Amino acid sequence: MRQMMWGLIFTAAMSFGQDAGQKTNSFFDDSEARTFALQSIQVDGEVENPGPVDLGSLPIRHCPVKEVALEKGKQEFKGAYYYGGYSLYDILDSKKVKKSSDSTFAPLLDMYVVVQNDKGERAVFSWGEIFYSRLNFSILLSRSVQAINPARMTVTKWPLPDSPRLVCANDLVNARFLSNPTKITVRSFKGTFAAQKPPSIYSPEMTIVAGSKPVVIRELGAALEKRAYDNVGYGHGMGFKGIEKVQGVPLKSVLQAHAKLDFDDLRQGIAVVSAQDGYRGVFSTSEIANRNDNLDFLLIDRKNSKEDGRYVLFATPDFFVDRNVKAIEKIDIVRAK
Q: Which domains, ranges and CATH numbers included, belong to the chain?
């Protein structure tokens, strides 16, 4: 009797947890798929071997996406989808970077990528969010798509796109989603930076430059949200850096308080974080201010640390520590060219 009772409970639990007719345990791939004939993509810019990339030779990556649009200033949910396709990571992996002749900064931290479609619309990604992040395969050119329809959704189903798309699974708002992507251009940021390391890199304040109105930040403010993480530091060059607890405020909160970022900024904007010695990193404004995974970059106030400067950027979503910028002097927010 006891075995029968437990059997009935187990059967009921399984019936509640799985959809009728579901072929696998995955909740992502149990609906009709639409496929696209996306065969190649052009890669140009600061690479040694520009030209078309045969997408058929690349692995197929998959990621679920919850799509939110910005309509009349409000966030509108457009549906949930399971995309299969070709990641920017795999597309650019064989394209060795060849910086322009006027570049004097050896690291690839100042690189960014512009994806363009057949209408001339553009979306911008930093090189770091593709190659330094732990989330390498979340930016895709779609080859297939399936709707992730709730089991009890009976009135309507999420509509499938009619053409291949560039999708970014970690974006909150779909600012960087483009239909019919055709071209990828690799670039480095051109700006004026120190060529030699000064005697001291300490900067007691930092400046945010957005448009024509620079704002000097001397204190972050007690009202800003604080977050703390236990971090295992690992560098691309030297390896293990130690284990420490880091605490700071989300960089997006600081930027949003001093710079108004609109839809086009999230699509084409970059933030250039630099120190007095010329060390710098280029970040897309979307990876800073348009995330849906809560892995927000932190801004840490070290106060009077002569080694770290004062303000330090902690790249929370990254596997490597290379995009942690010490002794921040300036943050420039610009539209990528």
A: 25-188 (3.90.420.10), 206-335 (3.90.420.10)
